């Protein structure tokens, strides 16, 4: 894990690798999405601002200047998850956080009914127990 919360993976010989051969995972995922290496002026933006959420749908490649403009424009617009979990991010739009969309509350409820506890539901759905617990507590199962 990177000091700033990003996930690191060992990829020797990568142009953006550290001296010890580690690369930020979101860079590797973005390059696989593009089918090429990132250009020197390209950066990867986490749409939901969660630094260790490296799902393809959460990543967006943009130039360094676009990325800087995006964060400058949204820095003062702090909004909270519209599902009510309390997670905040910078955005000018209505926002549902990754905790509430991965998976949906309905899926957690169904898994809970089937397995009898939120911990078992989390294992079944492949999410962390903390995320399932948060969904569990918010939805009054």
Q: What does this molecule look like?
A:
With 141 residues, the chain is α+β, with helices and mostly antiparallel strands. The model is unreliable at 90-95 (pLDDT under 50). It has helices spanning 25-34, 64-74, 98-101, 105-115, 118-125, 129-139; strands spanning 8-10, 22-24, 42-46, 59-63, 78-80, 88-90. The strands form three sheets. A two-stranded antiparallel sheet has the order 1-2. It has a two-stranded antiparallel ribbon with strand order 3-4. The longest helix is centred in the middle third of the chain and has 11 residues, at 64-74.
Secondary-structure topology with pairs:
Elements: E1 8-10, E2 22-24, H1 25-34, E3 42-46, E4 59-63, H2 64-74, E5 78-80, E6 88-90, H3 98-101, H4 105-115, H5 118-125, H6 129-139
Antiparallel strand pairs: 1-2, 3-4, 5-6
Helix pairs in contact: 4-5, 5-6
């Amino acid at each position: 894990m990177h000091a700033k919360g990003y996930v690191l993976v060992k990829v020797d010989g990568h142009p953006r690798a550290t001296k010890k051969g580690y690369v930020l995972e979101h860079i590797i995922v973005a390059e696989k999405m593009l089918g090429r290496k990132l250009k020197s002026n390209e950066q990867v933006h986490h749409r939901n601002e969660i630094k260790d959420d490296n799902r393809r749908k959460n990543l967006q490649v943009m130039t360094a200047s676009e990325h800087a403009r995006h964060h400058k424009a949204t820095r003062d617009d702090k909004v909270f998850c519209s599902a009510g979990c309390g997670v905040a991010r910078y955005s000018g739009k209505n926002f549902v956080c990754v905790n509430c969309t991965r998976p949906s509350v309905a899926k957690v409820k169904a898994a809970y009914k089937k397995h009898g506890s939120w911990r078992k539901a989390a294992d079944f759905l492949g999410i962390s127990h903390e995320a399932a617990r948060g969904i569990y507590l918010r939805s009054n199962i």
